[in-house]
Amino acid sequence: DAEVNTRKKTFTEVQTERLEQAERTVLIKCPPKLNEKKLLQYLSSHGNIRSHFFFENRGIHALVEFSEKNSIASLQDAIGIPSAAEHHVVPFKSRLFTFTLKNPVSQTAEETLVHLSPQSHIPVKELIQKLCDADSVSNQMYILLNEFQLTEENIKLRFLACSLVRDFARAYFPDSMVKPFGSSVNTFGKLGCDVDMFLDFHNVQKRATKTKKGPFEMEYQMKRLPSERLANQKILSVIGDCLDNFGPGCVSVQKILNARCPLVKFSHQPTGFQCDLSVSNSIAIKSSELLYIYGCLDPRVRALVFTVRCWARVHGLTNSVPGTWITNFSLTMMVMFFLQKRSPPIIPTLDQLKELADEKDKHIIGGYDCSFVSDLSKIKPTKNTETLDALLSDFFEYFGNFDFRKNSINLRKGKEVNKPESSPLYIWNPFEQDLNISKNVNQPQLEKFVAMARESAWILQKEEKTQRLINKEPWGLAALLTPFGKSNPSKMKNRMKGMGSETIRSLLDSLKLNNTNSLQKAVGK
Asked: For the packed helices 152-172 and 11-23, what is the interaxial angle rounded to 10 degrees?
């Protein structure tokens, strides 16, 4: 479709394309000594191979995408079932295969070194060394983005994990889909993040509405349950049992059915992902699509989000364990809000995106208006030309002095509005307008965030790059990713003394975390 190729694809087009791609894909565990040419030659006898790559995950694996789906059926017909010498096998035929050499000794001479696609990002220490060689903070931020963002190969692997779970769901619900949402698809995922996936029955429901034509009606007899929640719990319970009992490589399966959003957590060993499976969460999908749009509109958006999230992780402001910390989602929304507030704005508000929506973009979900434009070409590019250097520094300055006591953050309007209730940090859910997405954050954590933002703004504005290079010290973004006070604590204390400010002294206390109330006076000034 030439028209699609000349413009940026919509979120739904990208998802549909990748899900279809995953249906034509297999995953093969390979021997440590491998002849790539011979493996591909053998697989090609079953059909044309469109793409492939190798990666390391408890041994070498190959992800192979065929041009035609029926090539997989042909391959499956030719494949043997493992001999059950030590264990009895569950005879579920998946798209996960093991490739072995019948006579490894004679074939070692033919082995080739295969290129392995990285599936995790480099450690922060290594990143800091790379950043020190860059010539500007902007370039440092793009280096960080390139090191941490999901690669094309990793995204394919994520969609394959969903497709393999779909093979189980189909046994009970032939028309169902399993789709990724959240960081795997919203353009803000980093290598190593979990895969959030959901079971989607919308195709089944669409078909049901179509058949009500003509002088009579025919419908399926289906089990009726008192609530959608109970139906979701039952469905997830059975799929969870299937994965646990029959799924090759599905381990540590946990059914968390009484959560606000019931889910099944499991570890998918063949792809190396931690996965969370839930049932149809339409609003979560709309949030993923909204972030996808923002991420596609301007390259600075993703660079700033990745930088702020990495900074927050280094300083212990975010945590992979749920708690009173700011979440990555809240931080991302704070960056979006900041970009809406620039002059001129770098991204539009949600209300502006809603105004551009046409009939097919109209979505009311559970009484909430989730309508916004899906076609990126309808959104005018920004006239803002600020550098990432300036944006990063201003982000810390802005939130270091934000009146959190009085104001909340609203992405629909793109402006501060009075807090509707007394949570320390109030960020309106863009769609479910009666929810605060940062309700979990407590006062000490917010104060720590403000303290770190102020210190970071100070470092970016005051520190002399040339002096730091002479002293062989990290500069710019590299300095922000080094825990404060560790590299040179005496210098930090002297600097604070010189400024003689009450706020800065309380900042030092908060960094020691001796006194959780130390910044209470400062927050909001």
From this structure: 70
**Domain housing 348:** 299-462
pLDDT (tens digit per residue) in 162-192: 999 999 999 899 999 999 999 999 999 999 9
Q: How far is CA 315 from the centre of its chain?
A: 20
> pTM value?
0.89
Copy the structure tokens of residue 433. 């307008």
Q: How many domains does the structure of the chain reveal?
A: 2
Which CATH number do you get for residue 408? Answer: 1.10.1410.10
Task: Please provide the distance, in angstroms rounded to a whole number, between the alpha carbons at the two ends of the chain.
Answer: 55
The Cβ of residue 94 has, within 10 Å, a number of other Cβ atoms equal to 16
Main-chain phi, psi angles of 407, to 5 degrees:
-105, 155
30: left (phi > 0), else alpha (psi -120 to 50), else beta? beta
Residue 492 lies in a domain: no
What residues have CB less than 8 Å from 132, skipping those under 6 apart? 474, 475, 478
Is 216 part of a structural domain of the chain? no
Whole-angstrom distance, CA of residue 377 vs CA of residue 375: 6
Last residue of a domain, one of 431, 462, 493: 462
Examine the domain organization and report whether 446 and 319 are in the same domain.
Answer: yes
